[in-house]
Structures are given as structure tokens and as C-alpha cells.
Amino acid sequence: MLSLRDLQAGFLRTIATAPASSVLAGVDPALLELVEGRGPLGAADRLGVYAEMYWARLVDVLRDDFPRVATILGSSRFTALSCAYLTRRPSTRPSVRWVGSEFADFLARDGAVEGLPFLADVARLEWTRLAAFDAADAAPLRVESLRAIPPSEWSRLTFHTVPALHVLRVAWPVHELWAADDAQAVATALRPAATVLRVWRDGFTVYHSCMDPVEDAALERLLAGASFVAMCARLEAMLSPAAAVREAAALILRWVEDGILAVTSREEGRRAAGCRGRHAPSHRRGRVTIRRWRGR
Amino acid sequence: MAFSVPYLGHGVGLRTTHFPHVLAGTARVDWFEAISENFMIDGGRPLAVLERARASCPVVLHGVSLSLGSTDPLSEPYLRALRALVERVAPAWVSDHLCWGSVGGRYAHDLLPLPYTKEALDHVVERVRTVQDRLGRQILIENVSSYLTFTHSAMPEWEFLAAVAERADCGILLDVNNVYVSAANHGFDAERYILAVPADRVGQIHLAGHSHKGTHLLDTHDGHVAPAVWDLYRLAVRRCGQVSTLVEWDDRIPEWDVLCAEAERARLVEAETLEAHAVSA
User: Fold this and answer.
1) CB distance B148–A39 less than 8 Å?
2) What is the pLDDT of residues B14-61, one digit of tens each?
């Protein structure tokens, strides 16, 4: 007689055996003896019902979380690759939210697909967008508050970012794939290019944007806690002094418009709360991610 | 030892499809049931929707990953997250399933069946007690749909469920559709199950649709409640009286009005059943 623990271990091992093989191939004979076979369904068939649900459910989770990867691969290849991922890296956390946490890494290593060297970077972008989607809330700094700061105070200013902001460094311009109506067609012509994306959420909407080297350098300084003056100094290594100040100020304004700078003091919070509004960004945005939540 | 929760009426599951209605304030319903794990996040739209829903009506938290029957230790991060969510939402109650879903640190993300043995009973009772201690409140446990049973089970599921509820002093979330699906799949009498459940511990009822797969029924939550399940619901109402009832619809989710109409139908069925029962008594 199997202990409860051995029964559970054998059960999970059986249903999580790769679906390409029959359930019987992976079933523990001692477990099979304990399963009632009744009516039109034998014992192995009954375990098979659970095996079918296991794979269908988890592949669906990955398909929801990585829709561009799924589109590029096509349904059957995505299913096969997802099953390989789940076999190598089974879920270890209670919520399905984290099932895909290692999918991008898997695509970069064991699951690399010939002819699609950018696929792991597409997955990284999709996973980062999810991270922005449910990151902690923060009151964003708004343009009106920024404009109320006297010019004499700018040299001492430091800024903080919202928790939903992420900087993603990838080897392929995957934002071009994301924006394309026909991702498969764009994928064919894609060429490698070191790309830095910022990913963020404003309100409930997730965006991403490609950063040029100047914006990347400025944001890197800001994230390190540097003052506005220090940020300008960093840009002076790339631009003339006058252009560095202009560019730094323009970037701060753009980031405020995008909602990635956070209110950090109570006073600022009161001012911002009085002037909350929707500000359209001045540059192209990514498309919205809609999370599909599931339950039983 | 006793169990009691308030009567909330007839509610629906809080699902992404209907988030715009909640945010717009047009999702009027007696109460919502939220899947706990979907809201164990730091922020964003789902939590905003949950808080908006909570501001308009009672909310209960329904978990799918507590893995009460697992032989792994209870997940401490999960318990902490659940407790934090409970403090944030102040739900009318908290529920999860009489099943297991993980072992060896691996999660199946499914509601897997237990053998109904003394070993399993002692194990689950201890775990329910621990969870209740950690949350500082009683929980409700739900009977799951199942597709297999074990030859070494020593008692029927309804006896196991009743024994867990009595010994752990917890409530029961009676899923009438699950009773119907499991009865069909295992050849037991669904009415006998309903009549055996300790009525004073039933704090909530689930209704849902299921699918015929030829060889078995599958608990798909993708359609209307079946006529035979409505009949079982009538029996459950006759036995338990007024119990907060929720319609689950998780796949091929319909328009808000269609979902609400199903909850309204449950209200009507409950009222008719109670009226007929009063007359006959």
C-alpha cells in the first residue's frame, strides 16, 4: 500500500509525463492498482483525464502570458515548446502567475528554436510587461507639479521612479515585432541590434518604448539616485553642455508625461492628487496587455 | 463547536471579462467571489477592481492553491500572502478546496483527488486547523469534481467531507455541480451526497455548468447550469435552507447580463423551493 505521500508523488509524476507519450508509459504500477476502473473509463484512462487537463491548462497559461511568442511560433510549435519547458522547469509556486517565470531563459538555452534567435527576447519583453502590469501602485508626478518647481531649485532636484518601471536590455529590436500587425513577416526580416526598452504602466495600461543612448544614460543616472545636475553632467559626455541641459529637461518632462516618475513627499502627493489627469505621451507606445485571469 | 456565516444572497465570480463593469459601477450583484491567487499581487488593475467591487458589495475569497491535502508543508509565503489579502479585502469568508495540488515542491495547478482514508482525514484535519489558526478565522472547504477514486478509500466522499468539517470545525462550500459531476463519473447517488452533508456547516453553495465528454462529465464552468444540477440545488435548499449561492462561469464567459440572469435564476429557484417547502411543512 502506498503512503499518501508516495501516492501523490506517483500521481503528479504520471500526469506530468510529457503528453507525447501515453499516460501508461509513465504510470507507477502501484498507483494504478489503487485507481478504480469503472464503466467506460479504465484506471489509466482516468489518470489520463488529469494528464490532459494538466497540459492544457498550463500551456494555456503560457499562451496567455506570451501571446507574441505564440503567434510567431504557431499553435502546434508553441504547444510542443511549452510542454518541453514545463517538463524541464515545472511550476514551483502556488499561483499560475509565475508559471512562465523561466520561459524566456528556457528559450535562450534548452528551448532555443532554430531560425528564431530573437524569440527569447520577445519572451523577455512579454514577461517584463506582465511585471509592469501588476507592479505596486504609486502616485505619479504630474506635469503641473513639475512646472510649479522654481528654476532655482532644479539643480538640487532628485527624482524617483514608479515601481512599475523596468529597463530591459535585449539583443534584438523586439519592439518592432510587437508593433507589427504581421509579426511573422517582420520576424523574417529582423536583424540583431542591441536595444534598450523601458517598460512601464500608467494607470492600468502597460507601455514600452525604445530608448536611444542619451535617454538610456540619463535614466540610468536617475535610477541611481543622481540629481538633475549629475544627470546633465552625464549627458555632457555625449552632447554639448547646453544641449545636455535641454535634453535632460526634455527627458524629465517626457517621463512625467508618461507617468514613470513618482510622487515621494506628502506635499507633492496633495498637489498631485488635485491635478490627476491623463496625459498622452509624445512618442509611440506599445499596445495594451490584457491579463486573462482564470479560476475554478 | 459551531459554524456560521452571513447570508449574502446570490453572487457571481469576479472575472476579468467583467472588470470594465465593475470599474464603471454598473456591475450590480449581491456579492462577488474573487479567486484569491489572482489578487496576490502588488498592484495594478486587478487589485483596483477588487477594491472597487468590495466598496460596492460583500466579497469572499476563494483559493485554488492552498493544497490542503498535500503532504508537502503548507506554503508559508502563500499563507502570508493570503493573510495580507484577507486584511486588505475584509472578505465575508475565505474558502479553498478539499483536495491536493502540489507535492515535492511542484504545483499541478489542479484540484487533485484524495483517497478517503483515515491517514488522509487526520492529515487534512490538522492542515485545516493550522490554516484557521494562521488566518484567525474559520474557512470553508469545497468538494471538488473528480475523475477517479481510490480502491483503498475507507469511506464515501460525503462522510470524509463531513468528518473534516466536524473535526476541524470549519465550514463547507457545497458545490452542487461538482457533486453531480462526480456522481456521474463514479456511479454514486448525488442526492444521497446532498442529504448526508451536515446542513449546519454549509455556508455557501456553488453552481456551474459542465460538459459531456462521452465517457465522463467534465467540470468546465463554460455554460449554463444543467437542469439536473438545478434539481440538486432545490434539494440542497430544502435541506440547508437559505445559503449564499454563487454561479461560477470561467470559460466562454458570457455578457454580464447573461451571468447575472443565471444568478437571478438561482434566487428564483431558492425562493420557490423555500416557499414550497414551507407550504408542505
Assistant:
1) no
2) 999 999 999 999 999 999 999 999 999 999 999 999 999 999 999 999
Are B250 and A294 spatial neighbours (Cβ–Cβ below 8 Å)?
yes
In chain A, what are the domain boundaries?
A: 1-116, 137-289
Residue tagged 532644479 (cell numbers): A154
Q: Which residues of A137-166 are buried (b: 16+ CB within 10 A; e: fewer)?
A: bbebbbeebbeeeeeeebeeeebbbbbbbb
Cβ-in-10-Å burial (0-12, 13-18, 19+) of B212 comes to: exposed
Question: Would you call A270 helix, strand, or coil by DSSP?
Answer: helix
Compute how many other C-beta atoms are within 10 angstroms of the C-beta atom of residue A98. 15
Which one of B148, B181, B249 makes the best mutation probe of the A interface by having the most chain A beta carbons within 10 Å? Answer: B148
Q: Which of B42, B66, B185 sits opposite A134 (nearest CB)?
A: B42
Q: Show residues of chain A in contact with B11, CB under 8 Å.
A: none
Which pLDDT tens digit goes with each residue over B65-87? 999 999 999 999 999 999 999 99
* Residue A264 confidence (pLDDT): 62
CB pairs under 8 A between A and B: 163
pTM attached to this predicted model: 0.92
Q: For residue B101, what pLDDT is reported?
A: 98
| Arithmetic mean of pLDDT, B198-216 | 97
CATH 3.20.20.150 given to domain B10-280: yes
**In the Cβ-directed half-sphere of A60, how many Cα atoms lie within 13 Å?**
12
Residues of A in contact with B44 (CB under 8 A): 133-135, 137, 164, 201, 204
> Is A296's CB within 8 Å of B250's CB?
yes
Question: Which residues of chain A register pLDDT less than 50?
Answer: 266-296
- Best interface-test mutation with B: which of A1, A2, A5, A8 has the largest number of B CBs within 10 A? A8
Which of B100, B109, B111 is the best residue to mutate to test the A interface, defined by the most A CB atoms within 10 Å of its own CB? B109
Query: Please, which residues 133-162 of chain A have a Cβ atom closer than 8 Å to chain B?
Result: 133-137
Q: Which of A41, A94, A201 sits opposite B65 (nearest CB)?
A: A94
CB-facing half-sphere around the CA of A259: CA atoms within 13 A:
23
Question: B1 or A110: whose pLDDT is higher?
Answer: A110
* Other Cβ atoms within 10 Å of B46 Cβ, number: 22
Q: Determine whether the interchain pair A136/B221 forms a contact, defined as Cβ–Cβ distance below 8 Å.
A: no
Three-state secondary-structure class, residue B233: helix
Q: Please give the pLDDT value at position B87.
A: 97
Is the ipTM beyond the 0.85 threshold? yes
Grid cell 495580507 — which residue? B84
pLDDT of amino acid A22: 59
Check if A295 contacts B (Cβ < 8 Å): yes
Residue B7, sorted as left (phi over 0), alpha (psi -120 to 50) or beta, turns out to be beta
Phi, psi for A206 (deg, rounded to 5): -95, 135
Distance from CA of A10 to the nearest CA of B (A): 10
Please indicate if any CB of chain B lies within 8 Å of the CB of A36: yes
